[in-house]
Write a structure and sequence with these properties.
alpha+beta, Nuclear Transport Factor 2, Chain: A, single chain, 12 helices, Butyryl-CoA Dehydrogenase, subunit A, domain 3
Length: 295
């Protein structure tokens, strides 16, 4: 086996891990793939004969690429964070999706990604690397060009915000599904009281329609307001198809078999606390929904 073949073999052995790191860093599947590809280019150009741990080396490279991408994104201020829904990972309702499972080996619901989007780039990198992938602070410090103690403080600050703002979903997936089913049944029946009953009082609905559906973009808070918003789209209720969205109960909405949107629900303590809707046609095209029977 020549050196190029050895490099390729080493890289492919880590590709799934690197994509999982990049997805958590960026909240975008396409950007995660770009970051992984950049890591491959850097590997192919580098002198790696003294690299003892390819996984750690490549994780560091991907983290640096993602840090630069996050900083560039923030400078451009390209996304209105209050109405942006990160790319969902959509899988079959029965969980039979090995690729998605690899990306979601650690819980990474959309509610968490939304909070991560509000962090400063260095905070996000420190939190993801340490709290999700157990990278030592000494290595994180080198990536961020900070001291280990500064890296520790960045991760701690990010952790506090995550705990405060990213609700942990109920563990029982069947119970989650029952609550989501009750939500759509109430919407179909036009039953406002039943809708409010399955919603937490401070529920948040975050909808991202992109530039092609600006009227579908909204940030709505409170059970009564979210219930009213749900009734506006009650006509779509018969077209929902159960799926998993980032490992929790969700649906694909597909009138006449054509995907209109992906909806993720965060169910905590028996009520819906967050609803994230992605209906941006340009981004839906990038999701593989055909294998779910949604297209």
């Amino acid at each position: 086996m020549d050196n190029q073949d050895l490099l390729t073999e080493r890289f492919e052995a880590q590709r799934s891990h690197l994509r999982a790191v990049a997805y958590r860093m960026l909240g975008s599947l396409s950007e995660a793939d770009d970051a992984v590809q950049e890591a491959w280019l850097r590997l192919s150009r580098a002198e790696t004969s003294d690299v003892q741990d390819p996984r750690a080396w490549l994780t560091t490279v991907v983290a640096r690429v993602c840090l630069n991408m996050l900083r560039s994104r923030r400078r451009r201020a390209e996304v209105p964070l209050d109405t942006h829904v990160p790319d969902p990972i959509v899988g079959a309702a029965d969980g039979s999706d090995p690729e998605g499972a690899a990306l979601l080996a650690d819980s990474v619901g959309l509610a968490l990604l939304v909070v991560l989007d509000t962090l400063a780039p260095a905070e996000r990198v420190a939190f993801v690397l340490h709290d999700v992938f157990a990278v030592p602070f000494e290595e994180i410090a080198a990536i961020l060009e900070r001291s280990p103690e500064a890296a520790r403080q960045l991760a701690s600050r990010a952790r506090r915000r995550v705990r405060q703002r990213a609700p942990a979903p109920d563990a029982d997936l069947a119970h989650q599904r029952a609550v989501v089913d009750a939500f759509f049944a109430a919407a179909r029946d036009g039953d406002v009281a039943a809708l409010v009953a399955v919603l937490a009082p401070d529920v948040v609905l975050r909808a991202d329609g992109g530039v092609k559906r600006p009227g579908a973009t909204a940030l709505v808070r409170g059970a009564a307001t979210v219930a009213s918003q749900a009734l506006r789209y009650a006509g779509l209720a018969p077209f929902v198809r159960p799926v998993l969205v980032n490992g929790t109960a969700g649906v694909v909405v597909a009138p006449n078999g054509r995907p209109w949107g992906v909806v993720a629900f965060t169910v905590a303590q028996g009520r819906i606390v967050e609803i994230d809707v992605l209906s941006d046609p340009e981004r839906l095209v990038g999701l593989d929904l055909t294998r779910l029977g949604a297209a």
